[in-house]
TrEMBL record:
This is Promethin. The keyword Membrane applies. The chain crosses the membrane at residues 56-78, 83-104, 110-133. Residues 160-180, 194-219 are annotated as: Disordered. Keywords: Membrane, Transmembrane, Transmembrane helix. The lineage of its organism: Eukaryota, Fungi, Dikarya, Basidiomycota, Agaricomycotina. It comes from the Eukaryota. Pfam families: Promethin.
């Protein structure tokens, strides 16, 4: 463990020495190639042309503040215009989106009101076509109309009631045959009475068959 820590310390110290050497070498080159020739040139210029050198030095010192102010003002104006342009673009995009959303809402409301009569027309056409089809299958117009009314009631009215929520939470089972009626000519029969009549007819037919069979056996 101690050996690993010593190895890390040696690596860090070696890296620091390399970095310091590179920095010293860079500053040494900068001093030899740029700073010393510039200082020597300024000294020689003051010795050879003292008036011109003094004028240029004073002018550079006085111009430093306006130049720095101009650079700062330019950066400020540039960034301000960029910020205003972005805000304007976002505001314009928001206005366009709100305008488009308003017209979209108006179109959707119009389509909602338009879909109501279209739905009614489609259902009316369907019911008329269904009545015509049932009329072709049935012999009497009254029977076709009754069957069409029952089918329409079961498909649309009872379907809507079944899809709605139950008041007690559960549906009560009921016998649909109890409320159904059978129309024969001008006589209206309930389903229960029709079932009893069918049973009575069956019993009468059985009794007749038994009576017919007795003479054959006696003969």
């Amino acid at each position: 463990m101690y050996e690993s820590e010593e190895t890390q310390d040696d690596l860090l110290s070696a890296y620091f020495e390399k970095s310091a050497t590179a920095v010293r070498h860079s500053f040494g080159r900068f001093e030899k190639e740029l700073v010393r020739p510039t200082v020597r040139y300024i000294i020689d210029s003051f010795q050879l042309h003292p008036i011109r050198s003094t004028l240029l030095t004073i002018y550079a010192a006085l111009s430093a503040l306006p130049i720095l102010s101009f650079i700062g003002f330019t950066v400020f104006v540039f960034s301000s215009f960029i910020f205003l342009a972005l805000c304007t673009a976002l505001l314009a995009a928001l206005v366009v989106m709100l305008f488009s959303g308003f017209w979209l809402a108006c179109i959707l409301v119009f389509l909602l009101f338009l879909s109501v009569p279209i739905t009614a027309s489609v259902l009316s056409v369907y019911l008329v076509l269904r009545l015509a089809l049932i009329s072709r299958q049935e012999t009497s117009v009254r029977g076709a109309f009754v069957q069409w009314a029952k089918e329409t009631k079961v498909r649309f009215i009872k379907g809507e009631e079944a899809s709605g929520p139950e008041p007690n939470g559960s549906a009560e089972p009921h016998d649909e045959s109890e409320g159904e009626t059978l129309v024969v000519g001008s006589v209206v029969l309930d389903a229960s009475s029709s079932k009893s009549a069918v049973k009575q007819d069956a019993g009468t037919d059985g009794a007749q068959h038994v009576q017919d069979a007795k003479p054959e056996v006696s003969s």
